[in-house]
Amino acid sequence: MPNQKILYITTEMYPYQEDTNMAAVVNKMALKMHNEGNDVRVFMPRFGQISERKFQLHEVIRLSGMNIIINDLDQPLIIKVASLPGERLQVYFIDNEEYFKRKQYYVDDEGNPFDDNDERAIFFARGVIETIKKLNWVPDVIHLNGWMSSFVPIYLKTYYESDTYFKDAKIVLSLYNEKDANLDKKISEKLAFDNISGLKALDNPTIKNFVIESMNYVNMVVKGDEFLDEDLDKGFNETTAPKSEYVDVDSINQLY
């Protein structure tokens, strides 16, 4: 079914990240749907390891310049874009000096999770939503990959609930075995600033618990890894959302 507008929101994608299943799967899904005649966009964080020079990233001035307010603090949103090497597929990067300049992903050199991982996820989620609206491009399908993207449906169904922009978009969530970590206990205050409360994940805020929480806010949950760890598998089995076992990339269009 070509001519769909498909938005991939991901934390990893080959070749910007290598050697992970998620990065490879997102690359293959996006390219397959693009080559079948769909209008595909990809959004991901501009982590510090991604070389702007190597991958020819450039800032999109007309999309940059917004501020995202997190817990009463203004954070400037910078949007960069690149074509996937060798392809005519556009990848948009959410950037911010405070959150994404560092060279590590989610933990420091000693292996400790960054204190602001929660804010980075909120900034990423809201940054994607606001940028899509500014593009004036309404997706038919939003496919989420990676724990930071799990904040997108939570925001769409709460903070942005009265906004009709995404009302017809179907949201697909892929589950992957990502490394778990605690999130800042004050995340409840930061979400409360955006009038978001009552989430079960706030009782014990961790990366995995927010992914499990986000299953309640999507139209379809699918296994991104063929075999999930115990907690994710339990969440997958217990969710009332429609769900699918692992789907081969060649069959992903049937899911849509």
From TrEMBL:
Per the UniProt record, which EC number(s) apply here?
2.4.1.21
Q: Does the keyword Transferase apply?
A: yes
Tell me the ranges covered by the Starch synthase catalytic domain, including all copies: 5-194
SUPFAM superfamilies, per database record: UDP-Glycosyltransferase/glycogen phosphorylase (SSF53756)
Repeat found in the keyword field:
no
UniProt keywords (A-Z) are: Glycosyltransferase, Transferase
| Catalytic activities | [(1->4)-alpha-D-glucosyl](n) + ADP-alpha-D-glucose = [(1->4)-alpha-D-glucosyl](n+1) + ADP + H(+)
Q: What is this protein called?
A: starch synthase
